[in-house]
Design brief:
Blueprint: H1 3-8, H2 13-51, H3 57-84
Length: 85
């Protein structure tokens, strides 16, 4: 962006700033939803492995507990951030 263009579009700077903030919020929301979707897919994969008897019941429960804790943490962080806004 050149000097003249920068000076002419200076009054639009607040609008560009608000647009940038909106884009950042949207990106963060997508990232959080992707985390939750990934964890749900992992839980489904674990269930399939248990049904195919690739995992023992103990292994399944241990892995499932870890994924459920991670999912709960993602949801808590999303709620905490929602309360701050």
């Amino acid at each position: 962006m050149g000097l003249i263009t920068g000076l002419l579009t200076l009054p639009l700077a607040p609008v560009r700033g608000v647009a940038w903030i909106g884009e950042q919020v949207a990106l963060e929301a997508e990232r959080e939803l992707d985390d939750e979707a990934r964890l749900r897919r992992e839980l489904g994969r674990l269930e399939l492995e248990r049904e195919q008897e690739s995992l023992t019941e103990e292994e399944f429960e241990e892995m499932e507990d870890a994924l459920l804790e991670e999912l709960a943490a993602v949801r808590r962080s999303r709620l905490d951030e929602g309360e701050e806004v």
